[in-house]
């Protein structure tokens, strides 16, 4: 066995340790190479200066300034499900017929194509494709400022998680410098979409630790006091 060389850093040490082994077969060479990569990678992660790569959010705080500077707001209560539930044409709304039954034979001989999904309301009654249950025109208040600041704080401290759902129950619209700024918020999924003049302008992810997490309670309170219809809570 070769004598162990003095080395000056952990990576060189790992390579020096590796060089003391003899190669006896192609299999051992492959195994050794895999082990070396794992060992070197692990040690590299523990070296000073190593930091985990963190995903960046898909918005900038400056994009929320129009909401903080606006003097008039429109607050929307949204239905998170824009589609009608068609129990007549939905094949999953009732149990499947028993194999060999008359109903099963009829279904097999006369298959019915799936029905086209139907939206609950026309586009004029939607806010970025979600039905409007009610809306409230408001003057700017500290509570509305708090909502925006809370979203920004949560977004700046985003932990990197992204939910697969999007079920928004709240929307905000402001006008600033001749432009329309819209925010569609899903507190359930910790995500909000930003729009400027109807065009996508970014995504605000705000899944974070409890001390930074934004909640729907301020907006829910405003809607409740104004007797605005709200979607059932999740």
Characterize this entry briefly.
This protein has 234 residues and is α+β, with helices and mostly antiparallel strands. It folds into three domains: 10-46; 61-83 and 122-225, Uncharacterised protein PF16224, DUF4883 (Dna Ligase, domain 1), CATH 3.30.1490; 86-118, no CATH class.
Structure description:
The protein is α+β, with helices and mostly antiparallel strands and 234 residues long. The protein folds into 3 domains: 10-46; 61-83 and 122-225, Uncharacterised protein PF16224, DUF4883 (Dna Ligase, domain 1), CATH 3.30.1490; 86-118, no CATH class. The chain has 6 helices and 7 strands. The protein has helices spanning 10-19, 26-46, 65-69, 102-109, 142-156, 217-225, and strands at residues 72-78, 126-127, 130-139, 170-176, 179-186, 191-196, 199-205. A 7-stranded antiparallel beta sheet has the order 2-3-1-4-5-6-7. Helix 1 runs antiparallel to helix 2 (26-46). Residues 86-126 are annotated as: Disordered.
């Amino acid at each position: 066995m070769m004598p162990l060389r003095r080395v000056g850093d952990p990576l060189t040490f790992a390579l020096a340790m590796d060089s003391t082994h003899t190669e006896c077969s192609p299999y051992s060479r492959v195994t050794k190479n895999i082990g070396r990569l794992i060992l070197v990678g692990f040690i590299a992660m523990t070296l000073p200066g190593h930091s985990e790569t963190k995903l960046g959010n898909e918005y900038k705080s400056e994009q929320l300034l129009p909401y903080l500077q606006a003097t008039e707001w429109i607050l929307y209560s949204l239905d998170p499900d824009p589609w009608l539930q068609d129990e007549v044409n939905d094949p999953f709304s009732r149990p499947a017929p028993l194999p060999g039954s008359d109903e099963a034979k009829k279904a097999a001989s006369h298959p019915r194509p799936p029905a086209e999904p139907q939206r609950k309301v026309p586009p004029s009654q939607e806010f970025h494709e979600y039905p409007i249950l009610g809306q409230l025109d408001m003057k700017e208040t500290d509570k509305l400022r708090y909502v925006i600041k809370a979203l920004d704080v949560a977004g700046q401290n985003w932990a990197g998680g992204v939910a697969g759902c999007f079920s928004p129950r709240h929307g905000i619209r402001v006008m600033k410098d001749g432009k329309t700024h819209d925010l569609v918020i899903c507190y359930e999924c910790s995500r909000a979409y930003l729009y400027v003049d109807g065009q996508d302008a970014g995504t605000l992810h705000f899944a974070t630790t409890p001390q930074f997490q934004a909640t729907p309670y301020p907006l829910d309170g405003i809607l409740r006091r104004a007797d605005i219809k709200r979607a059932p809570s999740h």
